[in-house]
Amino acid sequence: MAHIEEHPILGTMEKKKYVTVKVDGREIQGIEGEPIAAALLANGIKIFRFTHKFNEPRGLFCGIGQCTDCVMEVDGVPNVRTCVTPIREGMEIKTQHGFGKESTYE
Amino acid sequence: MNKFDVIVIGGGPAGLGAAVEAARLGARTLLLDENSRPGGQLFKQIHKFFGSKEHYAGTRGFDIGENLLKEAASLNVVLKLDTRVWGVFPGGIVTAYCGEKGLKFEGKTIILATGASENVLSFPGSTLPGVITAGAAQTMVNLHRVLPGKKFVVVGSGNVGLIVSYQLKQAGAEVLAIVEALPQISGYAVHAAKVKRAGVRILLSHTVKEAIGEKILEQVILCKLDSNMKPIAGTEFTLDADTLCLAVGLNPRVELAALCGCHLIYSPVLGGMMPWHDENMCTSQSRILVAGDLAGVEEASTALDEGRLAGLSAVQKLGLRNFKEVDDEMQKIKDRLTKLRQGPFGEKRQLAKQGIISMKIPKESCL
After folding, report:
1. Which of B144, B155, B168 would best serve as a mutation to test chain A binding (most A beta carbons within 10 A)?
2. Which CATH code for domain B3-117+250-357?
């Protein structure tokens, strides 16, 4: 799955600047400024985190920053809403486990 | 510097409409939005709107959004993006944060246009990655040009379900079925006909029994419902889908309104809990007005006009213009809103709105 280059209503996609980020150590490319979640989905990544109690997978849900299901660790900061956070060159993105590495909850 | 006549919270169609009208009549207006781009959900509406000419019939949502942004800019509306409001305090103090920076504004009147959230549906497997809201699919496809999957099942045959299904097809995805629990289609016949022509089947009196997948969605089990909406045993069947979109309605985002002490009421027709408001979009709190989906879930055109009405109403409250002059403009918008709330779908909303407006609610003013 990549970006939709040709669209009957939106037309042809303009030339965009691509950035390279790391997801769990693996390099992927995204379009600068698009939400992290969009770049991950375009690269076929659907699992963004695992829950604290039951270690269940979670991914994108509402897509507009309301539900916080899609949070990941970005540049060391946990609980970043990937659906509303623009992607930038060199970001270190990690699948979040539980409340994230800086969490003090048990 | 941070003092305004009108502070509008939320930059969707309602908020933009409110800001544009208030600024046009001379109010110093601030528009706050938590997103990095204003327009709310307008920019993902790539279909043509219905209604009359003044409701932009035939115009696509994103064009309406662009025009509103231009209008707001030309009227010197102060726009603050990436700004999340977290509190409203006595004296009309609005507190927000932008990144890690805290901000404080003061507004003589405050218009809340915080919109709505999509409803969720619970069933085994509903938390699997691949189960998303229809709005999320629409955002990814129409705004970011990314298909969140290849094979879709959509739950709900309201307008959102129908339109999103069609737009998924436009983007090249496969839509296996639209599932509707009711025995009839919930959305407009025009939209339903369009998706049917595109080859999507609509399964009436059906629901999702379970979503299956080891770590991500792989299969959806559907079943038939009887006339009491109870699953009929033995009617289960499986579709291989990687994405399940939930289009099961929306509910007003009342958090800020509740925080402001606005009297809340319950309206099943308009989406659930919402702030009570009068015919001029004023709430039980004298300083606070509401508009758009927050004041009852409807559609973008009504949200825009309700926003315009709230903007004018705020100007009238502030006494910035001749009362009669503003009143006449407000009446025109009210007439347009009545026209928008006609037909089998609109009528119910019109009645619900009238019911709310005619309620007797004590006016307070703790802000």
Report:
1. B144
2. 3.50.50.60
CB spacing of B141 vs A64 below 8 angstroms: no
Domain ranges in chain B are: 3-117+250-357, 120-246
Domain B120-246 matching CATH 3.50.50.60: the answer reads: yes
Q: Closest by alpha carbon to B254, among B365, B364, B153, B115? A: B115
- Written as six digits, the tokens of A30 are 């995204």
Structure tokens at B242: 């990687």
Tokens of B201: 């089947």
DSSP A14: P
Residues of chain A contacting B140 with CB distance shorter than 8 Å = 37-38, 41, 60, 63
For A33, left (φ over 0), alpha (ψ -120 to 50), or beta? left
B-facing residues of A in 36-75 (CB < 8 A) are 37-39, 41-42, 46-48, 56-67
Contact between B295 and B252 (Cβ < 8 Å) = yes
Q: Does B59 touch chain A (CB under 8 A)?
A: no
* Tens of each residue's pLDDT in chain B, 367 residues: 599 999 999 999 999 999 999 999 999 999 999 988 888 888 888 777 766 666 677 788 888 888 899 999 999 999 999 999 999 999 999 999 998 899 999 999 999 999 999 999 999 999 999 999 999 999 999 999 999 999 999 999 999 999 999 999 999 999 999 999 999 999 999 999 999 999 999 999 999 999 999 999 999 999 999 999 999 999 999 999 999 999 999 999 999 999 999 999 999 999 999 999 999 999 999 999 999 999 999 989 999 999 999 999 999 999 999 999 999 999 999 999 999 998 878 899 999 999 999 998 877 766 6
Listed by number, the residues of chain A in 9-38 with a beta carbon closer than 8 Å to a beta carbon of chain B are 9-10, 13, 34-35, 37-38
User: Interface pTM (ipTM) of the complex?
Assistant: 0.94
Tokens (6 digits) for B285:
């709190």
Q: Which domains does chain A have, with CATH numbers?
A: 18-97 (3.10.20.440)
Residue of A nearest to B63 (CA): A10
| Residue B111 structure tokens | 């218009």
Q: Write the residue in A48, A62, A86 that is nearest to B133 by C-beta.
A: A62
Give the chain B residue nearest A39 (alpha carbons): B146
Q: According to DSSP H, which parts of chain A are helical?
A: 36-42
Chain B nearest-CA distance from A34, in A, is: 7
